[in-house]
Amino acid sequence: MVSAKREAALEKERRSLEAAYSAALLVALRDCADGRWGLFGQNEGTLPASLESRYVPESAKRLAAIGDELVAVREEMGFVDLFAPMQRLAELRAERGPNRPGEPRLAQMFLDELKE
Fold first, then answer.
1. What is the distance between the alpha carbons of residues 85 and 15, in angstroms, rounded to a whole number?
2. Which of 18, 25, 36, 68 gives 57 a disulfide partner, CB atoms 3.0 to 4.6 angstroms apart?
3. What pLDDT band is residue 2 in, cutting at 50, 70 and 90?
4. Using CB atoms within 10 A of its CB, is residue 43 exposed (0-12), middle (13-18) or buried (19+)?
5. 3-state class of 41 per DSSP?
């Protein structure tokens, strides 16, 4: 059982990380919509791992790092589901198929969803 003080600290950290994740997501989506591939992982596995990491934008790496921290805090608090924008990104990353829009179009579609 977590003490009330610890629970309050975790809640504050969760809210802070969710705000940071939302801000980082917007930056990463704008980068991707401007033509920087890597956020949705459509080309993962096409290059050797040593080269692949060079082409992932810093905004996508930052988003992943914040996401990892957020998942850890939410799990410690007992949340079983992902933060909603994180869940939507995971769904879009999981989609596969030959007629799937490219990453810049997916990013613009996601940005449009977030504006609504």
1. 14
2. 36
3. low
4. middle
5. coil
Q: What is the DSSP string of 83-98?
A: -HHHHHHHHHHH---T
Question: Is 17:86 a contact under the CB 8 Å cutoff?
Answer: no
Structure tokens belonging to residue 21: 């994740």
pLDDT attached to residue 54: 85
Q: What's the CA gap between 44 and 55, in Å, rounded?
A: 10
Neighbours of 81 (CB within 10 A): 8
Which residues, in sequence order, are CB contacts of 116 under 8 Å at separation 6+?
Answer: none
State whether residue 31 is helix, strand or coil.
helix
Number of domains the chain is built from:
1
CB 115 within 8 A of CB 26: no
CA end-to-end span of the chain: 39
Contact predicate 39/31, CB 8 Å: yes
Domain span holding position 78: 4-115
Give the pLDDT of residue 1. 56
